[in-house]
Amino acid sequence: MGIESEWIWMDGEWVAFDDAKVHVLSHTLHYGLGAFEGIRAYDQGDGRPGIWRLDDHVERLLHSMRMMRMPTPYDLDALRAACLGVLVKNRFSSAYVRPLAFLGSGSMGLGARDNPVHVMVAAWNWGAYMGEDGLANGVRLRTSSFARNHPNAALPRAKVVGHYVNSVLARYEANDDGFDEALMLDTNGLVAEGTGENVFVVSGDVVTTPPATNILPGITRASVMEILAHEGIAVREQVLTRDAFYTADEAFMCGTAAEVTPIASLDRRDIGTGSPGPVTKRVQAIYTQAVRGQVAWLRHHVTTPG
Hints:
alpha+beta
């Protein structure tokens, strides 16, 4: 499935897909200083799209820009309207929404400060990020040889364009070695996250996830923790070593793109039975229903156009 649509929002204007272009000397293309978000909209059962935790995503984009010292030409309300508008303009009932803030052409070099800041919002149809089989039966991970960026080298709370080179290399390595995804450790050898997902392990009646110190504190991660708390399942943030996965009863990863995806194995060691466990399936089912507006106590997280 491609990433085509009819219209893209660029700097406050609607631009036809084929005309949404930037100059080859755009600063972000050369140096990676830009911020972006990954957002999903789901059909609410009546053909209307509903965006899951829209304000949280837009606020994180603005925070990322602030951390990168990028001036913000649009406020939350304008970006919120653009994200909803791209769905309406393209007649999408379900879609992946991608806002991106980047520096255009002007000056070159690491010290350039006067390049214009551009913002665009695109949307496209995107199915299961890890595949339908991965969602249903779990994915196979390997521990990456690439360490997650140190917090003092790349601010982990910012969702920055250039940071993802680290993730791309880890994902390539895992896929080339026959795995679906990578588990990334930090520079101290502690579990961080996947290449684009947060991770959880289930042991007994407790669910554990790494603290938000060496990871991007994901919005889906926050949703999962909210669901676990509501269901009376103990969840704690605690440092983990990779062998916690080897001995866990079950494990899963989550993210806007990945949604809630079971982890079947790590480093060719089955986790639990090697199949999705009851806690994973429970969280996955509630999340899947919630993003479609079917869970009353979570419906406030869904924003629809109009």
